[in-house]
């Protein structure tokens, strides 16, 4: 005989099952937190334009220099001086909304405006081992495992490779196998980096083979490129510029990342830092514009902060939360698709520092209205490490933030005068009322790893902490192996490329 599902046990059962409505959908509207006034932004932007026009950018590769000069820039004493007019043209022609395609079209996302999406990033060389709890060198298997783990996490909107496969030898092997792991592990939008320009075309060929015909990938590119064409302070990086040329030629969306460090490669004052960093990211935008006007580029201005006592990069804290929020505010004010970074905790353990630093930085970035928030899941040790259970915990954190962004829907029905009257004149409570039951499913986010029971119940169930619960959840999710590429297509890819990930089927 089936057990009854009424009463308290029944309510718990229903709540543990998937809700028909996502109460905390990705893509909610940000922009509530504005650390800069309009006057502040105007002054910072004016300084950025002055830097680009009067000081210019150094070490510009010849091919790019010629394009800039053709568009009216001045090359003098080894530096390209970018006029205000050209910056204005680049901003005007830049897409205000970009579609990041998923291999599964239903998982594509629209970025731009005030929409906020959390995703991943990073290049961790160490992984917090799920079993031993110790850090070890990251491997290709880890990258694939992270891809298929996050593929099942609702609040991670896209997957940029989060770790470097240190067990691979050679730059081409690294780039090809990294792209392969993304291809096999998830159908969400993905992103990677290319060490050299000549690696782009072979990887595009591999993606075409997965799609089943030549040219299919470039028609609907679901892999974006992370490129850092600017080296702070104010000079171009030749290899990254060539990678950008090649990505533009293959219709690949580029996320041009500026990652200056306060007091080291950029001024220590927040205002001066933001002016230089904005100038550098605008230079990257102008670079893409002279290559191909209107090509989709994520304006990824990521302020990085160092601890001025030691010179070490600091991934968590009030300053980096403030600076990335201000960066997003500036980018959105210019009408560009904004990208920043958050959740780059300095903590090596899954502890109170981990949670506090991630919560502060992620919430600030979301409330500022950043369109794409990178590094937001799994990263530890100031980006040197990445954690499986961290991904699971952070997925819950991001759900809470999405719920905050959704806000409060004030309607006559939700205000519920008659509901209050009925409760006051009737049972004296709202438990079991249809409005309460509807709100429970529609308006409340229920984390999967947080414990909300009474202490006695928590103890009776083993007294597990959040990390232990997240480990168990991660192990459960890792039992699943996706089959996003047919066995026949996989065999064709393996016949052409040196794929070092063992078959996972």
Give structural notes.
Helix 4 (84-93) packs across helix 10, helix 11 packs parallel to helix 12 and helix 13 (388-406) crosses helix 18. Residues 1-6 have low confidence and may be disordered. The chain has a domain at 91-406: Alpha-Beta Barrel (TIM Barrel), CATH 3.20.20. The longest helix is centred in the middle third of the chain and has 22 residues, at 270-291. It is an alpha/beta fold. The chain is built from 19 helices and 21 strands.
List the helices and strands and how they pair.
Elements: H1 7-16, H2 38-55, E1 57-58, H3 62-70, E2 74-76, E3 79-81, H4 84-93, E4 97-100, E5 109-112, E6 117-118, E7 126-128, E8 135-137, H5 140-150, E9 159-160, H6 171-185, E10 190-192, H7 200-211, H8 216-219, E11 223-227, E12 230-231, E13 235-236, H9 238-249, E14 254-258, H10 270-291, E15 297-301, E16 305-307, E17 312-314, H11 318-333, E18 338-341, H12 352-368, E19 372-374, E20 379-380, E21 385-387, H13 388-406, H14 412-415, H15 417-425, H16 434-442, H17 455-460, H18 466-477, H19 487-496
Parallel strand pairs: 6-19, 7-21, 9-10, 10-11, 11-14, 14-15, 15-18, 18-19
Antiparallel strand pairs: 1-3, 2-3, 4-5, 7-8, 12-13, 16-17, 20-21
Which characteristics define this entry?
single chain; 505 residues; alpha/beta; TIM Barrel; 8-stranded parallel β-sheet; 21 strands
């Amino acid at each position: 005989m089936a057990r009854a599902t009424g009463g308290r046990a029944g309510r718990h059962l229903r709540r543990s099952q998937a809700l028909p409505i996502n109460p905390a959908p990705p893509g909610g509207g940000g922009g509530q937190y504005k650390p800069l006034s309009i006057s502040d932004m105007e002054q910072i932007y004016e300084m950025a334009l002055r830097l680009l026009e009067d000081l210019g950018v150094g070490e510009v590769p010849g091919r790019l220099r010629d394009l800039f000069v053709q568009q009216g820039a001045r090359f003098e004493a080894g530096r390209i001086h970018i006029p205000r007019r050209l910056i204005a043209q680049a901003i005007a022609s830049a897409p205000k909304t970009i579609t990041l395609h998923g291999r599964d079209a239903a998982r594509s996302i629209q970025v731009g405006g005030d929409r906020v999406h959390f995703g991943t990033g990073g290049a961790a060389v160490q992984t917090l081992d799920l079993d031993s709890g110790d850090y070890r060198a990251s491997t290709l298997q880890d990258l694939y495992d992270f891809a298929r783990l996050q593929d099942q996490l609702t609040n991670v909107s896209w997957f940029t490779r989060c770790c470097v496969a240190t067990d691979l030898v050679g730059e081409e092997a690294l780039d090809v196998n990294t792209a392969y792991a993304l291809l096999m592990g998830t159908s969400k939008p993905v992103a990677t980096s290319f060490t050299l320009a000549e690696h782009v075309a072979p990887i595009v060929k591999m993606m075409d083979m997965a799609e089943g015909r030549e040219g299919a990938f470039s028609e609907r590119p679901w892999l974006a490129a992370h490129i850092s064409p600017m080296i702070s302070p104010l000079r171009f990086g030749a290899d990254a510029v060539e990678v950008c040329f090649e990505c533009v030629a293959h219709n690949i969306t580029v996320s041009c990342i500026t990652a200056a460090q306060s007091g080291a490669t950029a001024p220590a004052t927040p205002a001066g830092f933001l002016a230089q960093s904005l100038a550098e990211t605008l230079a990257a935008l102008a670079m893409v514009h002279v290559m191909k006007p209107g090509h989709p580029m994520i304006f990824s201005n990521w302020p990085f902060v160092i601890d001025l006592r030691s010179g070490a990069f600091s991934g968590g804290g009030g300053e980096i939360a403030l600076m990335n929020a201000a960066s997003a505010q500036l980018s959105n004010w210019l009408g560009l698709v904004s990208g920043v970074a958050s959740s780059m905790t300095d903590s090596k353990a899954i502890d109170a520092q981990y949670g506090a630093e991630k919560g502060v930085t992620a919430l600030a970035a979301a409330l500022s209205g950043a369109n794409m928030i990178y590094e937001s899941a799994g990263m530890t040790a100031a980006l040197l490490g990445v954690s499986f259970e961290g991904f699971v915990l952070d997925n819950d954190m991001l759900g809470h933030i999405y719920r905050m962004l959704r806000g409060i829907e004030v309607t006559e029905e939700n205000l519920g005068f008659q509901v209050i009257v009925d409760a006051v004149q009737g049972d004296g409570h709202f438990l079991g009322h249809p409005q309460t039951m509807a709100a429970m499913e529609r308006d409340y986010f229920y984390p999967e790893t947080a414990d909300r029971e009474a202490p006695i119940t928590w103890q009776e169930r083993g007294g597990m902490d959040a990390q232990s619960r997240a480990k168990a959840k991660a192990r459960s999710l890792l039992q699943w192996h996706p089959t996003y590429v047919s066995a026949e297509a996989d065999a064709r890819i393996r016949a052409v490329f040196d794929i070092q990930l063992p078959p996972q089927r």
